[in-house]
Amino acid sequence: MPHVLIVDDDAGTREALAAVVGGDGLTTAQAGDLREARIQLVRQMPDVVFADLKLPDGSGTELFQDLDPRSGVELVVITGHASVETAVDALKAGAIDYLVKPINLQRVKAILNRLPRAGDLKAEIGTLRGELRRMGRFGLMLGSSAAMQEVYDQIGRVAPTPASVMLVGESGTGKELAAQTIHQLSLRRKQEFLAVNCGAISPNLIESEMFGHERGSFTGADRQHKGYFERANGGTLFLDEITEMPVELQVKLLRVLETGMFMRVGTTREIETDVRLIAATNRDPEQAVAEGKLRLDLYHRLNVFPINLPPLRERGKDVGLLAQSFLDELNERHGTKRQFPAAVREMLAAYPWPGNVRELKNYVQRAHIMASADGDLTAAVPLQISLSKSMAGTAVTIPFGTSLADADRQLILATLEQCGGVKTRAAEILGISLKTLYNRLVEYGNERGKGEADDHAPTHVTGGADV
Fold first, then answer.
1. Does position 312 have pLDDT exceeding 70, yes or no?
2. Which residues contact 203 (CB under 8 A, 6 or more apart)?
3. Which residues does the UniProt record annotate as the domain Response regulatory (predicted)?
4. In terms of DSSP bridges, do strands 261-263 and 270-272 run parallel, antiparallel, or are they unpaired?
5. Alpha helix (H) residue ranges in 246-355
6. Which of 9, 173, 215, 437 is most buried, taking the most CB atoms under 10 A from its CB?
7. CA separation for the pair 334, 368 (Å, rounded)
8. pLDDT, tens digit, 9 for 90 and up, residues 202-215
9. What is the value of pTM for the model shown?
10. 3-state secondary structure of 454
11. Are 169 and 306 contacting, i.e. CB atoms less than 8 angstroms apart?
12. Measured distance CA(214)–CA(222) in Å, rounded
């Protein structure tokens, strides 16, 4: 259902417009100044904004600067002093029409009848975004797997709202990219996005970094310093590794979330802030609460909308998609034409990537550097994955009395695991054909068939593979 925002400091005008709009079956929200209007924009994106030119804290046309031109929102200016100049200024500011007080209600209805065009534009944007998602791109994020599609759904729902978000995922899964995507899809996109790693700041300085300090407030404070909450006002603040924040500071953070007010270190003067908070952790937040690392009340304030980011090993073919994207970036940056040979693609798909996307990106960069040594711009990227775990379990112990069939099974599966799941290499070591290896794996119930065998990585690898 279309939604209309009415911004006017005259309550009578607001009520008259709301009655007409409501009579057409549309929903409405009202605001008496720019500040209230911006709050309403965060709560729900309207299809049309009726805004008075003269408001207590500015001009209604300033709201147009807060709106993404691609959103399809239409701005109608209201004025009590009509002139050619005001009409031209309104149109220059992006308004589609303007109304003169006392308002002609027939003109209001005519404007509302044009609403389907805005709806069509939003539908087109939605279709385009859907196409990009199917291609594996969503904001700054990349991946087309079912696990990532679920993440995209959640981000798409929460981004336009003011709700706090808790991102949970292993290190390297892209929590900061997810936070940036939430920011870019929100009404705060034109304001600051600041990222803070709570574990990387000294406990003695973290309060000053968060809230700022006054000159002379402590030794070394030779000037006034604005903290993250002050600098991110109107925008988004991303607190990574929130469980590493000192507990005593968590109390002050909770107060900011509840009141929207904070104080710089060294002063008792309160400062108002309007910040959307996104927190992240690579730990189980409930376990962190149980261990006293995270306050329960703060956890509940931050965990309004939790999103779990999947590890790379659960994202299937996203590994190849991400690796190729990283390689394309390097090729464009350095003017090269590197490519992955088939054996490398098999290894990329088979390796479990304990360091997730960050580890994959680092590998592609190392491989690109190694490939550059031969001076051939079109040379293939070499296979050189260094596993994070040391070589272990390189021997298979088969007890006396084990049947030949069972011994054969243990040897084949262990060899495949040591080869990182690369079947061509395992077959070569075992001295059997690739077809024989596939047949044996089907017998063991390890795979459903040859056609999809290379698309699934093993659950873990215990040794190194360097082919």
1. yes
2. 246
3. 3-116
4. antiparallel
5. 247-259, 285-290, 296-302, 318-334, 342-350
6. 173
7. 10
8. 777 788 888 887 87
9. 0.58
10. helix
11. no
12. 9
Give the confidence band of 323 by pLDDT, cuts at 50, 70, 90: very high
The pLDDT of residue 460 is 33
Tokens linked to 209: 């970094």
Looking at residue 459, its pLDDT comes to: 34
Assign 395 a pLDDT band (cuts: 50, 70, 90).
low
Place of tokens 């975004």: 129
What domains does the chain contain, in order, with CATH numbers? 3-119 (3.40.50.2300), 142-308 (3.40.50.300), 313-374 (1.10.8.60), 387-467 (1.10.10.60)
| Secondary structure string (H, E, C) spanning the chain | CCEEEEECCCHHHHHHHHHHHHHCCCEEEEECCHHHHHHHHHHCCCCEEEEECCECCECHHHHHHHCCHHHCCEEEEEECCCCHHHHHHHHHCCCCEEEECCCCHHHHHHHHCCHHHHHHHHHHHHHHHHHHHHCCEECCEECCCHHHHHHHHHHHHHCCCCCCEEEECCCCCCHHHHHHHHHHCCCCCCCCEEEEECCCCCCCCHHHHHHCECCCCCCCCCCCECCHHHHCCCCEEEEECHHHCCHHHHHHHHHHHHHCEEECECCCCEEECCCEEEEEECCCHHHHHHCCCCCHHHHHHHCCEEEECCCHHHCCCHHHHHHHHHHHHHHHHHCCCCECCHHHHHHHHHCCCCCHHHHHHHHHHHHHHHHHHHCCCCCECCCCCCCCCCCCCCCCCCCCCCCHHHHHHHHHHHHHHHCCCCHHHHHHHHCCCHHHHHHHHHHCCCCCCHHHHHHCCCCCCCCCCCC
Residue 375, class by beta-carbon neighbours within 10 Å (0-12 exposed, 13-18 middle, 19+ buried)?
exposed
Cα separation, 71 vs 68, whole angstroms = 5
How confident is the model over 75-120, as pLDDT tens digits? 888 887 655 556 566 666 667 777 778 887 877 877 776 554 444 4
